[in-house]
Amino acid sequence: MRHPTVSLVIITRNEEATIGACLESACRQDYPNIVEIIVVDGNSTDRTPEIVREWQQRDHRVRFVEEDPNRTYRGPAAARKLGIALATGEYVQLFNGDVTVEPDYVSKLVEFALENDLAGTAGLRWNKDPTLLEDFVNIRYWIYWLDNPSVIETPPFLSSDGALYRRADLLSAGGYDETLVASEDCDLGYRIISNGGRLRYLKDLLIYHSDPHYQAVRDFYDQQKWYGKGGAQLATKYPFRYAAEQNKVRSFVIYPVARAGLWLTLTVVLGCVSPLLVLLPQIWLIRNLWRLFKEGWKIYRHMRNAPTPTRVRTLCCCLFPVFNWTRYFLYTVFYLRNVPPPAELHRRWQLEPFFSSLVQAANDQTPMMTSARLVDD
């Protein structure tokens, strides 16, 4: 097997607690042709730059770059785009400053990408020594992959925290969109696939995370706020793909709030009629809670296939539906605050070439459709 050159690009911002371990795992990769390790710093205010410069003294491949000399933080997409522009390798291995990997991580990804002619590939993420929130995140990721094996074989995008890309495919797709505050990896995946590139996860390979966004409830809240804004930007850019986002409004906001309102109303009204009748809405409530428990038990059985046990898996699985609903609820609220109105999304959708091609294909199917032709308003 040939060994194409690989550039490692690590993005950081205030990662003094994790960047040392990240650089250590990057420097000890056993792949023989890593030409450089470029660290792009998003104007950190802690000891991150100092730690990276210490590593420059240990390994000549390490290179420190500031994202913006004017000290303006422009986000992870801008940092990755700068790192890719500076990279000279045939392949670019992306890392976040809070991840670590095994020494054979890059070797396995390069071999997998060459064997399958992939534009990009990545391992699956796992939070090591998880907090309670990180346990929930581990479960969410693994249930998603276990229930949707096609997502591993033909994913619409790759998580950028540990993805390997062929640099030529990155450049031909236009690289990362700096205007997106989040979901930049989704946007990049769409464009790579539309250019004919193939993406795939290597399911037997793990990326170990130490994610500060799940250390505290406030950090988790801020991250969902960030994700919601990024999702709204992506919906504006790809209204056809993101029309389904509107369903989240019903599933995670309207329906639950309506059910809670109905339960409260029935409890109050029936309580005024008879104390015994108050039991009826409580039975309905218990039935819904039992459904959540059954869902948690199903998740627990699924998680037996996960590679690493969580500390409090049983408890987490029972509470996981509540966590998942909370996450989607917060995301949806911030998504709605930033997304254009449905009428505007529909107008943009109609302007997309793909939508126009669907209309044309439907109109040209059979003469019998003449009386009911689809019209592009």
Description:
This protein is of the alpha/beta class. The protein folds into two domains: 6-215, Spore Coat Polysaccharide Biosynthesis Protein SpsA, Chain A, CATH 3.90.550.10; 241-353, no CATH class. Helix content is 54%, strand content 14%. It has 14 helices and eight strands. The chain has helices at residues 19-27, 48-58, 76-86, 105-116, 132-147, 149-153, 167-172, 184-194, 217-237, 245-273, 279-302, 313-338, 342-351, 353-363, and strands at 6-12, 34-41, 62-66, 91-96, 99-100, 120-127, 163-166, 199-209. The chain has an eight-stranded mixed sheet with strand order 3-2-1-4-7-6-8-5, with helices on both faces. It is globular. The chain starts with 5 loop residues before the first strand and ends in a 14-residue tail after the last helix.
